[in-house]
Amino acid sequence: MHTASEAHTVGESLGREAWRRLKQNRAAMTSLVILIILTVACIAGPWLTPWGLSEVDWNAFTAPPSLAEGHYAGTDANGRDLLTRSLYGGQISLSVAVVATLVSLVIGVLYGAIAGFMGGRVDNLMMRFVDIMYSLPFMFLVILMMVLFGRHILLIYAAIGAVEWLDMSRIVRGQTLALKRREFVEAARALGVTNRTIIVRHLIPNTLGPVIVYVTLTVPKVILLESFLSFLGLGVQEPMTSWGVLISEGTDMMETAPWMLIVPSAFLALTLFCLNFLGDGLRDALDPRTR
Amino acid sequence: MLHYIAKRLLQAIPTLLIVITVSFFLMHLAPGGPFDGERQLPAEIEANLLASYNLDQPIWKQYLIYLGNLLQGDFGPSFRYEDFSVTELIGQGFPVSLELGMWAILLALAVGLPLGIIAALRRNSSIDYLVMGTALAGIAIPNFVIAPLMALVFGVFLAWLPVGGWNDGHWRNMLLPVVALSIQQIAYIARMMRASMIEVLGSQHIRTARAKGLSEREVIWRHAMRPAMLPVVSYLGPAAAGIITGSVVIEQIFGIPGIGRYFVQAALNRDYTLVMGTVVFYGALIVLLNLIVDLIYSALDPQIRYDD
Amino acid sequence: MRKQRLLLASSAALLSGLMTLPLQADTLRIAIMGEPASLDPHKISGTWENDVVGDLFEGLVTEAADGERIPGVAESWEISDDGTEYTFELRDDARWSDGEVVTAEDFVYAFQRILNPATAADYAYLLYPVKNAETVYEGDADPETLGIEAVDDHTLKITLERSTPYFLDQLSHYTAYPVPKHVVEEHGDDWSRADHMVSNGPFKLERWRSQTRIEVSRNDQFHDADEVALDEVVYFPIEERTTALNRFRADEIDVARDFPTQQYDWLQENLPDATTTAPFLGIYYYTLNTRDGHPTADPRVREALSLAVRREVITNQILGTGEEPAYSFVPPGVNRYDAPQSSMADMSQEERMARAKELLAEAGYGPDDPLELNLRYNTSEDHRKVAIAIGAMWEPLGVEVELNNSEVAVHYEDMRQGDFDVGRAGWIGDYNDAQNFLSLLETGVANNYGAYSNEKFDALMDQASETQDLDERADIMAEAEKLALDETATLPIYYYVSRNLVNPDLQGWENNIEDIHRSRWVSFDD
Fold first, then answer.
1. Chain B residues within an 8 Å CB radius of A138
2. ipTM of the complex
3. 20 to 30 A from C350, CA-CA: which of B122, C55, C323, C467?
4. Whole-prediction pTM value?
5. pLDDT in tens, B66-77
6. C22-249+503-524 under CATH 1.10.1740.10, yes or no
7. CA distance A86 to A50
8. What residues make up the domain containing B155?
9. What CATH number has the domain spanning A4-48+84-290?
């Protein structure tokens, strides 16, 4: 069984200790480096390619990849350079992923931990609210929001973030419910530690394992949700694009112009793979019990 | 226990009321009405149409009328599909969606759980990497890519299975959509199961069980399985919701007559009654699913008591 | 590609290898592009609904395989000299599928029903040429006053407001179908459901599973039933064009009423016998907002924008399924009409761009004060591609375009409210006459989204509608169209084509400008 002091040290040295262990994980570090390169490429890359975001090459509609023409990844049905668009699309997809996941992480973890820890009527009320949120069909809400407020990137952040925290809060609550009856929490309580401190110091760090695993699931899910919206025709407005938009465009062309599907899919898959390894590495590094 | 269930079901009523209210007003706020299309109707006719659906009343009155009808089990006529009532449309579509979704969830569990356990037990082995790599691919590829790809390969190139249609639930028609719908959930469940299994295996009480000299099989089945299942059970609620959302795409691509497609189509068509019908229905379904998930959860984890 | 066959005598066929001709049920499987809103001819407005309802019902006049109008329920007719009175002799052997005789009264009942404001039929305005139709529809006159009368069971007289040269064509449209009075009176609005529906066409309704399939079978009461080759037709509502294509390739359907444009090259290579495209009675255009406060209110700006659009690039490279670049508003091939061409048709691309730059400069736009435009289009892969290309074509003029995409309901609402500079629109002819297109540019017409208004144009259109001589009428309308083109009232982009995938074993499927294909003419060759 955990003791109060054992759990207590988790909060203290979490950061430094975890970083040290993360550095030893080669897969995670490689992924981190790739993710950083990818991010930098998406931000800086568009200046390096010979074509602009919405620049049309009137001689190359749906053209396969060609070094000579400067279309390293081919062009889309409008003669626009696919590599350039994929990089721009990465900006949107990555920013949606980061912002929406952060929103869901902060709200969900706090909400779930408080609900699980308080239990009783508070828990009931809080979870009822989550139930209500769940029972509102997400797609329908998003469609209505898009229609009401126009299609804006901020709205996509908000819509996805506002939905994803629900899952997070349920998972954290489930964990907390199980944890709070453990001895180390009872002990902390007996020592007169405040609720706030117990939640922040003892409960949340101990739920970090599943939470981080869930974050590594959430980021791809967010990216995919965004692409799902794109598939339904509710993605970002032209000329801006995202990996989701590009992939859904490519799907229709999978037989005739496979590069239109493969290029953005490769960006997406690479990102998701790296996020996964990084997530696993983080989990190992953060989990106090694997010591 | 029964008391608890009854209480939860009673609590569902205000939940649904809020869902209905929010959806109703949001929808009527949205620009464009059910009769807006490429052709403008003459003003008189539009007025006639609006009157025949009570749309000329003040909004609060429409809301009360809707609630009143709903209490009598009347979802109203569909604005768009005039030869059917909303009740009929949902009545025809829901069994199809349910069947599709149930099979998808079952498949996801049947494949995802064992994969996760195996990967956890053979942690860092090549099997682990293979399973997790595959699972990741399942997550990394959107279902609107997988579904047409499968239709193309198995339906068109190999011609083993039908490309689309429902055919009253024939297994041949169901196979591709069920697999397409479950792939993502398989991947999620396998990953969750692996992570939580590893965590449980590293925990004190498993170490104790091992120290007692129990066989590995006993340790896993007796002591590790139940706690390891908890996060997966928690996830079943969201998984069901995910399946429903996913069915929007899958039903569209495979031409399946479920209700998934109404979520988007009806909202785009401003088919108010059909939108509300699906919203109410979906809301009730989710409430029920969450209750079931909580019950399974409490059955698995005796530490949680629903005594309040 | 082979038809679905139901071997009714399959055991017999198995017993004897010599028996080569088992009884077969010929079933045609068609992918229609949406779920019908209804099968009541008075409650529909989509082409996919026409596919089904047109097989179930027959009007006074009907369509041959090539789209030509031939007698339907009416055997013959006489038209008064002033062109306002039509007297139809109905055939004796016209029957409803329940065996009742189709009478003139059924037509009277149908016309009065569709124009009755209580029915709220959104397509009823097509019958406005009928005397008093508009006043009845607007609720200002009793349906009894409508200009239609059953002289006896088999004689029907229709009186028009004024001579209307395209009226006979219109009588083959579903708005002019008869409805079975005895059934509608019994079941009310539920009459069109599968368990009640009675129809007078070559097929009768068997089953309708919403969103799945509609099954019809040959109507033995139909006067020409012996000549109908098919036993059954099944319609599958499939909105996703890619899905329709896949199901066609997997031999699950015989006809797909559309295919994805981006697959055209692949189709031509791999299914050349099945892929058909044909000129279609429709115009794809951008409407330019002429309301005050919009830069497009200035005709010079409108002309410059139009000049810069390289239509050939759009038709050949963006779409490429045989669309023709449009330099007129009325598509070619319209009956009794030769559309005038915009003067820019003869200019080279360089000349057009030079002129466009001049015009924009005259209108006061330049590098320091660039023209900013809001371009709206509704959600669709093709609309998106065209909008992007046109945006890029305007770039050399220094035009800054903001693309705005929204779903159909919002798009048209915004268009009607004038909340746009340039907006995507399209028009598919309700009937084969130039008037149907040109009336979109008349002042105050609801579908005149850009609010184009020109008194002279309106006067010409009025004059045309009063003119009985067809050649003279055509000349007047052409003059009106020329006027609109000179002012760049709209920006025509291309003429639509119809696209179908058709099982090459199918006989009797003929391309036509209205893209109307009735299953009664279709058969499988053996």
1. 241, 245
2. 0.80
3. C323
4. 0.83
5. 888 888 888 888
6. no
7. 14
8. 95-259
9. 1.10.3720.10
